[in-house]
Amino acid sequence: MTAESQDSEIAIEEIEVAPAWIASVRRTAPPAEVARAAAEGLGVVRAWLAAAGAGAGLRPGREVVVYHPAAGEVVELECGVEIDAPVERALAPIRFARMPAGRALCARQREATDAAVARALAALGQACRDRGLMAAVRWEIRSGGGSVEVYASIEPNAAQVAYWNGPGGDRWAELWPLIDGAMGAITAEILEVAAPRPGERVLDVGCGAGTTALALREGVGAGGAVTGVDISAPMLAVARERAAAAGAGTAVSFVEADAAAHPFESAHDLVFSRFGVMFFSDPVAAFANLRRAAAPGGRLAFVCWRAAEDNAWVTVPLGAARSVLPDMPAPIEGVPGPFAFVDRDRVRGILESAGWREIAIERRDPAMALGATLEQAARYVMMIGPVARGLAEVGEAVRDQVRARVAEALAPFAAPAGVAVASSCWMVTARA
Ligand SMILES: C[S@@+](CC[C@H](N)C(=O)[O-])C[C@H]1O[C@@H](n2cnc3c(N)ncnc32)[C@H](O)[C@@H]1O
Q1: What are phi and psi of 19, to 5 degrees?
Q2: Which among 48, 125, 204, 206 counts the fewest CB atoms within 10 Å?
Q3: Between 168 and 65, whose confidence is greater?
Q4: CB 107 within 8 Å of CB 12
Q5: How far does residue 143's CA lie from ligand 1's centre (Å)?
Q6: pTM of the predicted model, to two decimals?
Q7: CATH: 3.40.47.10, 2.60.40.10, 3.40.225.10, 3.40.50.150. Which one for 167-431?
């Protein structure tokens, strides 16, 4: 442990945090009600552990509250009690979650009052901003005896690891059939652009629930191999189940790792991604790592979103939702997230700096098939994408209102074959 910095009140250290598990519940709360929501959440977990935990062989440890980077006005909390390892699938609302791990800044407070915790969180927030980290995962550990340790992750991509192992990952793990249905045309186009060939070794970056890894396997055939890499445990669990059900054997494998830093073998003929490469905190370093994963002359092929304003599946529902919730936030472009790569010159610059050559970035506008009916289409855009994120906190009555407005706005796109709305993507290719 090294003393990192110190002000008159709060000493901050940089430490390495080992991986650990918590039995937990999720809560969202406005900033002023975080302490109440955290106490309530911890109470639910404690009660569950007292009733079911001992029988299931769980030994409760310290209490942990994880603060995810704020989505708009609400704070998302994972409230839990440390355990050795998950023992079974718990019934909702109890779940097993991984605590943030890796490099973190830590402030220890002798008293666990709300004010002391808030001061420590603020000091850590400032320390993160000083390092150019805008959104960091923070957490506190209450060890009993009144003391509290407060942490902020300085691990690259930690906020994404938390998101894709949290609500985002759970949603995609459950809704992959709907997402695949919507993205059928986009998937066909990027697979055609990538053109996997028999016998090739392919890396599918941010492979999620495994759809494209399985499709790539068709392309490379029995003599080839596909490796999917992702940071999301819930999505990889689905991917592994699907690969087993498809009898993929060893031709398709999955690795839970940060693609930005994982030491891949330099053996891939094709580095591929469907919307899985826009989340890196340091994209140049990440694409340099992916270039090292490519065999000499290996190909890169990925699809990413163009500007939100050119994607009617974003603008139409967002406009309709705003007629009910005027403050619904617009997607942020240029920061790690779905719209990080809207600027073609920036994408080119990142790839050049990372050592890729023969870079080609082509606009394609495949349709998104949002659903067979207007009702289904409205439900889809309220579950996946920018409107879904903006609705995280609203109640059923408002959701019903939004759903009706969104369905109305999508009506001009309805046809006998279903509701299809334009998307706009970059199809990016390059060579190592
Ligand atoms: C929008 S989803 C796309 C998933 C999948 N490719 C698909 O099209 O269904 C983005 C995916 O990228 C993954 N991801 C984000 N950052 C990552 C990283 N640093 N390393 C590996 N995967 C990452 C997420 O966990 C998530 O599965």
Answers
A1: -60, 145
A2: 125
A3: 65
A4: yes
A5: 34
A6: 0.84
A7: 3.40.50.150
